[in-house]
User: Fold this.
Amino acid sequence: MSSYTTVFGSLDKYEKGRVEVINDNAKNYAFSNVFEICSKSKPYEKVVMGINQIYVLEAIRAEGNSPWYSAAHDEFALCMDGDVEIHLVKLDKPVVTDTEKNGAVKLNGEPAGKKMGWMKLKRGHQGMLPANSAYQFRSAKPGVIVLQTTLGDLSVQKWAEICQAA
Amino acid sequence: MNAPTENIQAHVTGTNSHGYKEFKLGGFSFSRDEYFAHIKWTGKNGKSMSHSADIGNFLRPLMRDVAWGFFYGYVNFDDVFGTCNKYSSVDVYAGAYNGEYRKAGVDLLENHPTDLTRATFVDMLEDWVNEGYDPFASPQETGTAYGKKHGSNLNALRRQRQLAKRCVGLKDDLAMRSDANGYTVNRAFADVPQDQPELHPEPGFENEVHAFNLFAYLSRSDVTWNPSFTSVVKFSFCCPTTEEHILPVIHGNDRIEWFFQMCDEIQWNSGDKNTGAPRARVIMKAGDMAAMPADCRHQGFSPKRSMLLVWENGSPQVVYDIESGKSPVNPVSF
Assistant:
């Protein structure tokens, strides 16, 4: 019996698909590839690769230590390449005081609060970033994170650079 | 006054010579024989019309329509018959979203209470699916839909859709899948690592320092083309699913829907939502991200079982924002 090989992508090796237009505009599909995005973006640049009103999926190149972030809502980080640590701190006082504010904010320096612990994600692992905690990504080598979050001040939209246009 | 839900029953018109119940819902009648489902109606022009579909190709979308509570927008069983979720009622139609049927005036669209439509479809599904056939399974992993009435498969039909409230694996939330609870690794994902993330919580934070292996979780899915919820941010739902063979429905959007292909490949046909006229093909490989606009219908083809993250905005307001023009039908402008 032949076995199956599951094909994943990585920064080092990925094959991008395409939109084949019949009677349409390729732009309508906002077609991109997370590995291509992260091969060109700066460490921890929060590149929006999917948006639906206030909600976004961000493509993040994990490389080195990130700044500390916090958000008023839960976020979820899916590791698509590399080994990424996430360190969590329970803030003494929420940094984001507006409970309705969308997206993560960057903390100035180290967070003040109690250490919650840390996790290490490999490809396919998804970690929770609890609301009102502070979190930091650490990745010795370049990795790729897909972040389920909302559109915030740090979100970067550059659709013309990442999407198939024709 | 509406009748209590539990009293709403399908209108069964009889049992035919093949052993199957026959049904009526408004102006539509439904029957099956050994190979086909048959639907009859009277078109807007007064002519009697009929439509036949391979019974497997009818039962697979019927299963999804029931399990998904009529889903978001349009569930086209094929290019003629389908439903559209109006969220407190359901449009049932034949030919209403087929350009030629509509032009000829032979189409019919009726709006029915959700409870009545559900009762009819559930009864139809449970009667028309025979022992050994699972419409949620890939064609290679189940028996045949054909033949005279023989037994049933209620355990397969009555699976509950798996919806995390916050995240899979958290206390009091959706459980992880394992051999112990009956979710074995699928043959097509035997090479997917089953390791779990390293977790180092400080005392008191065991339920907050949380992660799980999404790919391992998906490798153990026993169904195809059936999104579950694994993580939730307000109305942002990550709905990953495992796909093999053909998406049994041609999904017509009432909102923008995003796909993130996590492994392998799916090819999508996109067409005009109202007529079915072809618009584009979208070839998605591991790491690709694409949106399906709110004015298209789409159907996917997955040559090997693959992992797809369907990412939905589940806000009850979004469909009305699009209808009113407050939100665009296309995902972005650039």
